[in-house]
């Protein structure tokens, strides 16, 4: 009966609530398997990391001069994916774009979990990871403070700020939904929701405060997100290594982050639409809009990539040209051109040609984009380090070892597990935001 | 002085607005009025404005936190002054990012903290006021009347189109 | 007056014999590298001889260049270390504090000379080589970055002995292991703040140049080469 309805916001409120609360209860066999298998993968990844802690960083594929490898690629990749929520939630909230409504929470959840995962890598990649807390300023017996001039400290402050902001930004719109869920059957859930909803009653004072807070947070989180990935980019740009020391890195990484974040969002939305029966709420219209945004980011990404490489090629600095050659013609060329194909060519064909654009092709393009963005970070990190300024120290030997691959795969599994748990505890679509609220400020 | 509460249910937003207008014309203050709903209800300006200082709190929090963090970095850099690569011991640009991020963090924390305060979620507030259970698709209006006064507001509420009006004692 | 330690290496005298490399290993408790490590780029040689070949057989010319930490005055490796494990001491040395290193690898990535070496595993010496350790130098554990220190333990001992004797440090008193062991006497170490010291005079020679000077790192190792 409802399949002919074009606008799901016009569904009766009771039906909306029923649809969006239904996935929270019960556990199907698919769900159980979907959580169990990634958990096993995570266990193996943890075992790999234990081996690294026990024996030393030598179990990885790293070597002189390639001192940063898969772990740093993973770090930048996951922090990049965290920009999904920020773009959708914050920018679309600020511009009051209605189509964002069913996807804000899913996007914000991606942000928080991607940040949690990405934030682990600055610890995982350390040679003496158990001393990671030395990067934090605390009074100690050596009377030492950390070096705030180091871009790694800037990373720390940026990520701490972003995590705090994202968690709050995810939590705020959850409060009204949790107040409604507090009447749930299972007693432990009732206690959880009641505690988390902080006694929300739905009074207009509370609503006004919430909306004001969310508007402010949207602006703040946007400013923070841009700075976070700029700071991550500056881990590379502040170094004098050839083809790292470029002022384009800040904006380049932000664009790449939004790009990969949107791709991840599209995949996640397609999955939850299928698995949780949300076809009425996540319509072709949403995926169409996401596809257009993805196309825009793809062009922007291409623009930045071209700008960086053209200036290097034209400038003809000897050290930079060696790295440029390594990337585009020599050892890394297959990866480089694969990256360009899946980041630009494939999305343009699958999403640019209207007849080909669909949810399925959108997911295919997005998977390609995630691969492409992973490759992009690899191509930024490894060729530069492999081709040192003193030719005698050059190496080409870096290949990731089983430890690095296991940890990388485990992070993807971790994302799946976290998301599955989230979708069982909280409605993945913000129920209260869903109905259109006509604005009457200026009548 | 004992107050009583009137819990009224409406089906329609405009009816609530006209009820509020007439109640305010009769002398009920906005502090005694509360609208309960399952989704935010927006009235036109002048009906039930709740002035807010959240932006100010956010900006103040940002400035305070950012300044404090910068001062701390300045202190820490000089407290254990180490020469690295010819850079100055403290330079604003060398640690400017930290200033920026901590300013933003201050804004985030101040916004969230002020939200918890302004929404009344963390204030004990008026714990004796009864909270209506809002049926789906309805909007509830709670009026706090000094006792004896309940008759006139009840009439105004029914005139505005309330589906039901219930008188309740404080909890 | 404070010292400012520097080194001059005469490339026209260097024969590439690698006695300096061996001496550095012995003096600084550097683990012995195996062929497998060499194949995977994990050797540790605080000083290494870089070989550059010019021409084709039979007219091949080989240039030998001992490359060690240049102890840059504006070292790019120093500002990026988050825990101050590497910093500049008042005598101009780029000091590496093993106890403070958490292993972020940023310093090694930022060194344009690639003279920083990492301990990928806990070091192991074949029996009985571990008995030959120098007690003045720490043995580093896995996860810690290390590099040439200009034999800071010998500098310290030299200064202590001079202070005990009540004399200033004489030029040539302090010699790092590599300088001491060079059979061609191609390496000279001394105080750049002393204009009469051998290293200062060599640094001002017309044959003197520095490696990757254009990067602005202000290295304190001077290479002397004919035709400059």
Largest sheet of chain A: none
Query: How much of the sequence of chain B is in beta strands?
Result: 5-15%
- Alpha-beta classification of chain B: alpha+beta
- Structural classification of chain A: mainly alpha
Report, as a whole number of angstroms, the end-to-end distance of chain B: 15 Å
Q: What global shape of chain A is seen?
A: globular
- What is the class of chain A in the CATH system? Mainly Alpha
CATH superfamily of the largest domain in chain B: ACT domain
Number of strands of chain B: 4
The CATH homologous superfamily of chain A corresponds to Formate dehydrogenase/DMSO reductase domain
Number of strands of chain A: 0
What topology emerges from the helices and strands here?
The complex is a heterotrimer of chains A (about 450), B (about 170) and C (about 230).
Chain A: H1 13-21, H2 29-55, H3 70-81, H4 83-94, H5 104-118, H6 121-124, H7 151-171, H8 174-181, H9 187-196, H10 204-237, H11 249-275, H12 284-315, H13 318-328, H14 333-352, H15 359-386, H16 402-425, H17 431-434
Helix pairs in contact in A: 2-16, 3-5, 3-11, 3-15, 4-5, 4-10, 4-11, 5-7, 5-11, 5-16, 7-10, 8-9, 10-11, 11-12, 11-15, 12-14, 13-14, 13-15, 14-15
Chain B: E1 3-10, H1 13-25, E2 33-36, H2 54-79, H3 96-118, E3 139-146, H4 151-160, E4 164-168
Antiparallel strand pairs in B: 1-3, 1-4, 2-3
Helix pairs in contact in B: 1-4, 2-3
Chain C: E1 5-10, H1 19-28, H2 35-39, E2 48-54, E3 61-67, E4 86-88, E5 94-96, H3 106-110, E6 117-118, E7 145-146, H4 152-165, H5 177-181, E8 187-191, H6 198-203, E9 208-209, E10 221-224
Parallel strand pairs in C: 1-10
Antiparallel strand pairs in C: 1-8, 2-3, 4-5, 6-7, 9-10
